[in-house]
Design brief:
The chain folds into 2 domains: 10-223, Sulfite Oxidase, Chain A, domain 2 (Alpha-Beta Complex); 236-345, Immunoglobulin-like (Sandwich). The chain has helices spanning 10-25, 28-31, 91-97, 129-136, 159-162, 219-223; strands at 39-41, 61-63, 77-81, 87-89, 100-108, 119-128, 144-149, 154-158, 168-174, 181-182, 192-194, 207-213, 236-241, 247-248, 251-260, 266-273, 278-280, 282-285, 298-306, 309-319, 340-345. It starts with 9 loop residues before the first helix and ends with a strand. By secondary structure, the chain is mainly beta. It is 13% helix and 35% strand.
């Protein structure tokens, strides 16, 4: 049966904003990662050449309110707004009616500081958002989607982002394609949206509705929002070994780290010791020869002849288009600042 076509005009959008969009436009100090939230947990592992992806139990987690689970039997994803066919789909219907795809993704919190633990990577199985929207039959004026979670959180994504082939409605996750399992409640069960290259706040968990809107419906709200609205992940790096404050033995050691960004390929990573010259590290995971998309982090190794004393290590990544990390990023994008960690070379005192 054809669904009723419902244009989302400015008044409709503002009503939605009053009901829940405030959660998407509140200051980031309250939104994500800078203050104590309802629940927040950093990742309990960092990537290495042997284990580049995160175990499900080790994933970071951030939520403004408590999780909003819904039992699988009664849950429905609802698609409405500027569409010809309104949809109401269960997860079993999504699994069986649409092609299932598996996408590796690196996800980070927008407020993740340099060397922060609010970043993880894994595989997600789901169905392409564009396949579902094809069935809903988008109207000609469709410009963006208002995505609302069962917890009341609301995000806005452009149709350009949603119609990318790697944007999915996800129902499974795991460290590898062979280890996929239904989303845990804290990570969005029964369904979440995943759009690689965007920060986590752009990808609501526990999705309830996707409302397609036209330009009139949201421009005034966008003009009043702050600079983080577009949500693209900033180019960032971190250290897996050694970690901040660690004691290491003198001599040759492998400095291991990772770098990630908005989906542009990373060309190289440099490491600096004690503020000296930048030296090239070797990318050992997600190289140009790996069958891995560019929105998954790279893992790199730097061979360092560590001399005794108090030392500092810094790392910066550079995209293939020449854009590189720099110092002085301000909140909310402070995570893109060049990370610096102190280490002690010598015996543990």
């Amino acid at each position: 049966m054809r669904g009723r076509r419902e244009d989302v005009n400015r008044r409709t959008f503002l009503r939605l904003a009053a009901a829940g969009l405030s959660s998407a436009f509140i200051p980031l100090a309250e939104l994500g990662c800078a203050k104590k939230l309802s629940q927040q947990l950093g990742a309990s592992s960092t990537p290495t050449p042997d284990q580049p992806f995160t175990r499900v139990d080790d994933w970071y987690y951030v939520s403004i309110v408590d999780p909003a689970p819904r039992d699988l039997e009664h849950y429905r994803l609802k698609i409405g707004g500027i569409v010809d066919n309104g949809l109401s789909l269960s997860v079993p219907a999504l699994r069986t009616r649409f092609e299932n795809v598996v996408v590796p993704i690196t996800l980070a919190c927008v407020g993740n500081p340099p060397e922060g633990s609010l970043v993880s990577a894994g595989y997600f199985r789901g169905v392409r958002v564009r396949d579902v929207l094809d069935v809903a039959k988008l109207g000609d004026r469709a410009e963006a989607a208002i995505i609302t979670g069962l917890d009341g959180f609301v995000a806005l994504q452009s149709m350009k982002e949603l119609l990318r082939p790697e944007s999915i409605f996800a129902f499974d996750m795991g460290r590898s394609p062979s280890e996929l399992e239904p989303l845990p409640v804290v990570h969005g069960f029964p369904l979440r949206i995943m759009t690689p290259g965007l920060y986590g706040y752009m990808q609501p968990k526990w999705i309830d509705t996707v409302t397609i809107a036209d330009q009139r419906g949201y421009q005034d709200v966008l003009r009043g929002s702050i600079e983080y609205l577009k949500g693209h992940i900033q180019l960032a790096s971190g250290f897996s070994h050694p970690f901040e404050g660690q004691f290491i033995q003198p001599g040759t050691t492998n400095v291991i780290g990772y770098s990630f960004g908005d989906g542009r390929p990373i060309s190289f990573v440099d490491v600096r010791v004690d503020g000296g010259p930048w030296q090239r590290a070797e990318i050992v995971f997600n190289t140009p020869f790996d069958d891995m998309p560019p929105w998954v982090w790279v893992v790199w190794v730097f061979r360092w002849n560590a001399e005794p004393g108090e030392r500092t290590l810094e790392a910066r990544a550079t995209y293939t288009d020449g854009v590189t990390q720099f110092e002085g990023h301000r909140f909310p994008y402070s995570g893109g600042t060049i990370p610096l960690i102190p280490v002690t070379v010598g015996p543990h005192r």
